[in-house]
C-alpha cells in the first residue's frame, strides 16, 4: 500500500507545473478539510500551541490559522513529488535563494551551522542549498521503512549530502564538520529532557536542545539562520546574517537567545511554522501536561 501511494504521489511531478499547481491546490484544500474535521489529535495540538503562544488571539483567529496551516502542511508535503524528482534547472527556478552571496559569508577557516527552524519549506531549502554546498544533517528514522528510505533518498538527491540518524550520535557529525561540511540543523523540536534545557518559547517553558550552542563553541562555528517561505507555488529561501557574539555565556542563555530569534521569524510567517508538533510535550517537574 505504501509503495502504491508513493508511486502515485511521485507521479505528479511529470505534470506541467501549472497543471500540478492547480491539482495540488485542490487536493491540499480537500485533505486539509478532512484533517481538520477528523484529525482531532493534530487539530487539538495545533490549537493548543497557538493558544499558548498567542494567548491574546481569539478562538476564531486560531481556528483560521489552523485551517491555513493544515492546508500549507499538506501542500508542502505534496511538493516533495517534484522537489525530490525534478532537474537541477527546475529546482533553481522553483526554489529561489534571495541572497545567495551569504552561502559563503562566514569567517575564513570557521565551521558553519545553517540554523533551520521548522518552517514547512525546510526540505526545499535543504535541497536548494544542496546544489551549492555539501552538508551534513541529522534525521529521525520513520517507523515505516519504505517511507523512511524514500525520505532519505530524496534528501540525498542533490549534491553529496551526508545524512546521519540520531542513533549514530554526534561523533560522525563532528568529524564531518571538521572536514569542512556545514551542518544543517533543526533546533526547535521537543526531544525530551536529555541534552536539553527549559527555556521559554513565546513565554512558555519548552525543552530545547543545546546542541547549537555546544557545537558552535566546540568547533568555533558561525551560526547562519535559514528561513523558508512558500509563496505562489514556489519557495523563497533567506539566509540571515551570522549571529553575532554567539554563543553567549552559557548554553541555557544561548539557547534562550535562539528561541527569541525563532519567535521573531515566526511572527513574520506564522501559519507556515510547524504547529502540528507537540512542542511543549516535555514539562518541568510538577507542571501539568498540555496535551
TrEMBL record:
Compartments reported by the entry: Cell inner membrane
Keywords attached to this entry: Acyltransferase, Cell inner membrane, Cell membrane, Membrane, Transferase
tRNA processing in keyword set: no
Primary location recorded for the protein, binned into one broad class: membrane
Molecular function terms, GO-annotated: acyltransferase activity
InterPro entries noted in UniProt: LipA_acyltrans
Pfam families: Lip_A_acyltrans (PF03279)
Protein name stated in the entry: Acyltransferase
Organism: Limnobacter litoralis
Amino acid at each position: 500500500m505504501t509503495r502504491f501511494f508513493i508511486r502515485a504521489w511521485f507521479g505528479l511531478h511529470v505534470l506541467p507545473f501549472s497543471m500540478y499547481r492547480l491539482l495540488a491546490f485542490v487536493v491540499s484544500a480537500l485533505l486539509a478539510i478532512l484533517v481538520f474535521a477528523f484529525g482531532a489529535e493534530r487539530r487539538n495540538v495545533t490549537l493548543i500551541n497557538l493558544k499558548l503562544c498567542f494567548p491574546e488571539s481569539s478562538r476564531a483567529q486560531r481556528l483560521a490559522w489552523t485551517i491555513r496551516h493544515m492546508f500549507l502542511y499538506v501542500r508542502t508535503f505534496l511538493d516533495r513529488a517534484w522537489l525530490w524528482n525534478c532537474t537541477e534547472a527546475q529546482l533553481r527556478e522553483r526554489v529561489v535563494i534571495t541572497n545567495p552571496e551569504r552561502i559563503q559569508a562566514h569567517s575564513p577557516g570557521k565551521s558553519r551551522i545553517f540554523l533551520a527552524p521548522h518552517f514547512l519549506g525546510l526540505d526545499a531549502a535543504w535541497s536548494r542549498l544542496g546544489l551549492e554546498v555539501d552538508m551534513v544533517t541529522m534525521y529521525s528514522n520513520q517507523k515505516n521503512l519504505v517511507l523512511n528510505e524514500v525520505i532519505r533518498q530524496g534528501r540525498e538527491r542533490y549534491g553529496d549530502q551526508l545524512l546521519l540518524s540520531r542513533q549514530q550520535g554526534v561523533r560522525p557529525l563532528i568529524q564531518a564538520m571538521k572536514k569542512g561540511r556545514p551542518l544543517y540543523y533543526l533546533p526547535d523540536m521537543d526531544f525530551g529532557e536529555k541534552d536539553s534545557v527549559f527555556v521559554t518559547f513565546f513565554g512558555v517553558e519548552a525543552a530545547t536542545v543545546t546542541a547549537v550552542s555546544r557545537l558552535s563553541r566546540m568547533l568555533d562555528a558561525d551560526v547562519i539562520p535559514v528561513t523558508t517561505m512558500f509563496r505562489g507555488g514556489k519557495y523563497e529561501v533567506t539566509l540571515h546574517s551570522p549571529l553575532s557574539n554567539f554563543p553567549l555565556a552559557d548554553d541555557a542563555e544561548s539557547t534562550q537567545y535562539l528561541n527569541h530569534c525563532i519567535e521573531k521569524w515566526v511572527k513574520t510567517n506564522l501559519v507556515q511554522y510547524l504547529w502540528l508538533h507537540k512542542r511543549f510535550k516535555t514539562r518541568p517537574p510538577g507542571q501539568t501536561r498540555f496535551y
